[in-house]
Automatic annotation (TrEMBL):
<keyword id="KW-0325">Glycoprotein</keyword>
<dbReference type="InterPro" id="IPR017441">
    <property type="entry name" value="Protein_kinase_ATP_BS"/>
</dbReference>
<dbReference type="GO" id="GO:0004674">
    <property type="term" value="F:protein serine/threonine kinase activity"/>
</dbReference>
<dbReference type="InterPro" id="IPR011009">
    <property type="entry name" value="Kinase-like_dom_sf"/>
</dbReference>
<dbReference type="InterPro" id="IPR038408">
    <property type="entry name" value="GNK2_sf"/>
</dbReference>
<dbReference type="Pfam" id="PF01657">
    <property type="entry name" value="Stress-antifung"/>
</dbReference>
<dbReference type="InterPro" id="IPR002902">
    <property type="entry name" value="GNK2"/>
</dbReference>
<protein>
    <submittedName>
        <fullName>Cysteine-rich receptor-like protein kinase 3 isoform X2</fullName>
    </submittedName>
</protein>
<keyword id="KW-0723">Serine/threonine-protein kinase</keyword>
<dbReference type="GO" id="GO:0005524">
    <property type="term" value="F:ATP binding"/>
</dbReference>
<feature type="domain" description="Gnk2-homologous">
    <location>
        <begin position="138"/>
        <end position="241"/>
    </location>
</feature>
<keyword id="KW-0675">Receptor</keyword>
<dbReference type="InterPro" id="IPR052059">
    <property type="entry name" value="CR_Ser/Thr_kinase"/>
</dbReference>
<feature type="transmembrane region" description="Helical">
    <location>
        <begin position="259"/>
        <end position="283"/>
    </location>
</feature>
<keyword id="KW-0812">Transmembrane</keyword>
<dbReference type="InterPro" id="IPR000719">
    <property type="entry name" value="Prot_kinase_dom"/>
</dbReference>
<keyword id="KW-0418">Kinase</keyword>
Length: 548
């Protein structure tokens, strides 16, 4: 319990302490294949096995080298954190990276490999041994859009170039990693970081960085630049982005850290009560029902081959105008969503899933049959599916007002939500979750509660989207599910880092959601507005929980 309290504040005041996993994406680079579909299926299995074995290695040694499978379908995987990151940040960055590499899935037609560069960590998989590769054709240079904004930028250019050259000399001598800064005392300081991946030797590291230096110069005079090579990462910025492990960042941080500690102590009692209430509430009934329900599930075997739920791929393809971009509503972790009009005129939302391997199809259909029985006003209704075409498709009711995420953070054409409306959304979401967790016959853990998964209909009744799918994954493969479900900032810490999953993970995400709804701010950019946080705890504890 103490640990939970710690984590709660770790999250709330994450910005204030030294924890920044730098889980911002620098680039995602996917590569193509011409391999046959049959080969791809076992490639996929190996790919998932690779992802699965990463986490313990990262936790132990901060990098991971994994090879799975044999012959044509062998998959090579590599991951590493930047050497200045603390272990906890490293774990979080990597968890997020692992989830997002799914966007370069080998399931998608043609994809053969992928590289995901975060500013705090790196992940790559491919179909050949790339471990000591230093340069490749798909290496990338990423520059900021903003100029540094000086009338005479000669000095800035010189500083940047001297800095990156220095990093290039020092990094190969220092275990493949170096940070530094230039121009202290001037108005514009510049900071840099160079790192070569663990299996790249010193001479290859130097080659890689020398190449990076020549390319990063094209970013000048932008305020930030990165080169993302197969063997190394080089970045300069006018912001100090790295940690200097011998001395914690100076300046405002320490004072704010102190504040965070004070706040944490003051409110830990409240948090304790809050978490207690939450945990007890959700665990309580569950324990009673649990055994009996798992038996029921076993009895519901898939004898539903000719179900009316199964729609033809062709008709759904037509309904969405062949998945045209103009029909696209959005992109989620497990697939893209399109607006479609069925032959009978009904408007629906059609989700095109990334996953379509044989082993999942049966389970998938079974799942659809089960979850289609779920009917609750705060859950998006599943109308049908298609499992015969090249991709699995899911058909949902169309919810008119888009997502809570758009409503709160994106759209400028709508009035800010009134308090009663926010309250209604919080209660409705809670009711939907309680139904998933407790009242439905299936115990469903959503795993990805966040504003973009809460849809709003005309009168702003919230509807939870995307539930049920995660149950598709085999029981023992919790890491896979971890990789797919979950978004940094909403993931319960014990789930994000160790893959431990209970309903509490949803409750945690729900808590974050409530704060966001109340504050109208994304959790990414929380500033500790205490009135707001107090308000949230108040609603959450006194009213929200009682009326669920
Ligand atoms: C990869 O596939 C896409 C779409 O099929 C194509 O446009 C692109 O040129 C391909 N890239 C390579 C390197 O083959
Ligand atoms: C370093 O790695 C490169 C590329 O893999 C290789 O050609 C070279 O022989 C290696 N150098 C040493 C000293 O091991
Ligand atoms: C910019 O500053 C450098 C010295 O820092 C000077 O040599 C150069 O002439 C200046 N350029 C302009 C356009 O003022
Ligand atoms: C590079 O950085 C190191 C360590 O900060 C410093 O000792 C050295 O003088 C620098 N070299 C150059 C060429 O700036
Ligand atoms: C890191 O901190 C130490 C001690 O304060 C300092 O000597 C060193 O110059 C710093 N290094 C960088 C790259 O900022
Ligand atoms: C720093 O900025 C101030 C005004 O903003 C200017 O007067 C001064 O010359 C600048 N110093 C340097 C070293 O560029």
């Amino acid at each position: 319990m103490n640990q939970l309290v710690f984590f709660f504040f770790f999250f709330l005041f994450g910005k204030l302490c030294l924890c920044d996993p730098r889980a911002t994406e620098a680039a995602l680079i996917c590569t193509n294949t011409t391999a046959s579909i049959t080969a791809r299926k076992s490639f996929v299995a190996n790919f998932l096995a690779v992802l699965d074995s990463f986490t313990p290695l990262i936790v132990r040694q901060r990098y991971a080298v994994v090879v799975k499978g044999s012959g044509d379908t062998r998959v090579y995987g590599f991951g590493e954190c930047m050497k200045d990151l603390e272990q906890g940040d490293c774990n979080i960055c990597f968890a997020q990276c692992k989830a997002q590499i799914m966007r370069c899935l080998p399931f998608q037609i043609g994809t053969r490999g992928g590289r995901l560069f975060y500013d705090g960590c790196y992940l790559r998989y491919d179909d050949y041994n790339f471990f000591d590769e230093s340069l490749s054709e798909t290496d990338r240079t990423v520059c900021a859009t903003k100029d540094v904004g000086l009338s005479n930028e000669t000095g800035f250019r010189a500083n940047v170039m001297q800095l990156v050259r220095n990093l290039t000399v020092e990094a190969p001598k220092n275990d493949g990693f170096f940070v530094g800064s230039m121009g202290k005392g001037n108005n514009v300081s510049v900071y840099g970081l160079a790192q070569c991946w663990e299996l790249v030797n010193a001479s290859a590291c130097e080659d890689c960085l020398v190449n990076a230096v020549s390319r990063i110069s094209s970013c000048l005079p932008k305020e930030e630049g990165r080169v993302l090579n197969a063997g190394c990462y080089l970045r300069y910025s006018t912001n100090k982005f790295y940690y200097n492990s011998t001395a914690p960042p100076v300046g405002g941080n320490r004072g704010r850290r102190k504040l965070a500690i004070i706040l944490a102590t003051t409110f830990s009692t409240m948090a304790l009560a809050l978490i207690f209430a939450t945990a007890i509430f959700f665990v309580n009934k569950k324990l009673v029902k649990k055994r009996q329900e798992s038996k029921q599930l076993g009895a519901l075997s898939p004898l539903l081959n000719k179900s009316k739920l199964n729609l033809s791929y062709e008709s759904l393809e037509k309904a969405t105008n062949y998945f045209s971009d103009t029909n696209k509503l959005g992109q989620g972790g497990s697939g893209s969503v399109y607006k479609g009009t069925l032959p009978n005129g009904k408007v629906v939302a059609i989700k095109r899933l990334f996953f379509n391997t044989r082993q999942w199809v049966d389970q998938f259909f079974n799942e659809v049959n089960l979850t289609s029985g779920i009917n609750h006003k705060n859950l998006v209704k599943l109308l049908g599916c298609s499992i015969t075409g090249p991709e699995s498709l899911l058909v949902y009711e169309f919810v008119s007002n888009q997502s809570l995420h758009d409503y709160l953070f994106v759209r400028k054409d709508v009035e800010p939500l009134r308090w009663e409306e926010r309250y209604k959304i919080v209660l409705g979401t809670a009711a939907g979750l309680a139904y998933l967790h407790e009242e439905s016959k299936l115990r469903i853990i959503h795993r990805d509660i966040k504003p973009s998964n809460i849809l709003l209909d005309e009168d702003l009744t919230p509807k939870i989207a995307d539930f049920g799918l995660v149950r598709l994954f085999p029981e023992d493969k919790t890491h896979i599910s971890t990789a797919i479900a979950g978004t940094l900032g909403y993931m319960a810490p014990e789930y994000a880092v160790r893959g431990m999953l209970t309903q509490k993970a949803d409750v945690y995400s729900f808590g974050v959601l409530v704060i966001e709804i109340t504050c109208g701010k994304r959790n990414k950019c929380f500033s500790p507005d205490m009135v707001c946080i107090l308000h949230m705890i108040y609603i959450f504890e006194l009213e929200g929980m009682e009326s669920i």
